[in-house]
Design brief:
alpha+beta; 2,3-Dihydroxybiphenyl 1,2-Dioxygenase, domain 1; 4-stranded mixed beta sheet; 2 helices; VOC_core
């Protein structure tokens, strides 16, 4: 029924200008802002993949990961994002621990590191084997 739909993800932020700077300057993504639609941002990740980010005055940050970025070298990517100012989350819980580089390893899945956008939404980079 929806197999031919051009679905997209969306989530809110409290400040479209801060989000635009973060996604374009820190993450290096193409960002299109539509001021006719109240400052809605369209993040272009790859051909045909878009994420809609919309300003919301009563925004509440996500408590879960809203967007995942697969990478082939998580250590290098974390270091680069930190150099650009990204803030990574640290966890020291029974089932969720990050190391000195803010990377979670060995929980039965791939290595993953979580960080937040300026609105507090949780994003991740996740190491995958592209072969």
């Amino acid at each position: 029924m929806l197999e031919n739909s051009k679905a997209f993800a969306s989530y809110s932020v409290d400040d479209a200008e801060k989000a635009k700077h973060f996604y374009s300057q820190i993450l290096g993504l193409k960002v299109i802002q539509d001021n006719d639609m109240g400052g809605v941002l369209t993040i272009k990740i790859k051909e045909g993949i878009s994420v809609l980010i919309y300003p919301k005055t009563n925004h509440i940050p996500s408590t879960y990961t809203v967007l995942n970025f697969p990478v082939d070298d998580i250590v290098k990517t974390v270091a680069q994002l930190k150099a650009y100012g990204a803030k990574f989350n640290r966890y020291d819980e029974k089932d969720l621990k990050t190391d000195e580089n803010d990377i979670c390893r060995g929980n039965g899945g791939p290595s993953i590191a979580w960080f937040t956008d300026p609105a507090g939404n949780i994003l991740s980079i996740i190491e995958v084997d592209f072969e």
